[in-house]
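G., the chain you wanted modeled:
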Amino acid sequence: MLGSWITHGGLREQRARREGMGPGVVIGHASLATTGLALWAAYAITRWPPLAWSAVLVLMPAIGLGLSTVTLWTPYPNPGGVGRVGGGGQFAAPAEDVLASRLTDATLTHALTDAALASRLIEEVLASATAAPARPRRPRGHAAALIPASHGVLALTTFLLAVLAAVGTV
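Predicted structure as tokens:
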């Protein structure tokens, strides 16, 4: 997930925006999680109890940072029901209004002063709106949610195994 985030410009995008979560949270989560996993694997090999407890202590802040990233990145509808915080996604409104992009203030003012021009303008706008090809959207099914969900399940499993290993040393 970290590699995909970096290759798709996540690091550059987070640095460009001053709001939201900084790249340190994502990188900190990944590095703490990797360190905790390595400590737990080292305990599984050596059976030295301090390694098991160290893994638990390192994985706890990794889980906190992971939950923070999931909370901040999960899309949710606006109170108005359209759009998404952060832009994009399944709930996002179209990038531009088709009718507004074809009407200028001068054209509209001139057409409204003459009834014949107003009816012709309406016909042209309606014809162009229905004739405009719809931009194909890449379908985003529910399969995209399986990646972070499986990541969370595997992270929880790792943490539980580390806790059980640490408790088993007592």
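Residues 28 and 121 are 57 Å apart (CA to CA).

Shout if anything looks off.
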